[in-house]
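Side project, low priority. Logging it here so it doesn't get lost.
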Amino acid sequence: MKPYTLIATLVLGLAGHAFAQAPSDPTATPRVDKRQARQQQRIDQGVASGQLTPKEAARLESRQAKIQQDEAAAKADGKVTGAERRQLKREQNQANRATYRQKHDRQKTAPAS
C-alpha cells in the first residue's frame, strides 16, 4: 500500500469516527436534564429530612424552574450552542451551591411524614 493511500485511509477513518460521535440532536441536553433530576431529588430529600424549610425549598425550586426556562430558550432556535451549555452549567453550579448552603445552615423543620 502506498503511503499516501494509507494516510488518506487513516484520515477518512478518523473523520468518520468523529462524525459518529457527534450528537444526532443539536438540542439534546442529557447532562443538564440528568443534573436537574438529581438536584430535584436533593431538594425533595432536604424537605423530607427537615434540612430545608418550606421557604428555602420554594426558593430552590424557583431557581430550578428558571434553569428549565433558560434550557427551553436555548433549545428554541433548534441548536444549543457551547456558550448556552456553559451558561446552563454555570446556573446549575450556582443552584448546587445554594442547595448545599441551605441544607447545611442549621435551620431545621420537623421532617415531613
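Brief comment: The mean pLDDT is 86.
Revisit when time allows.
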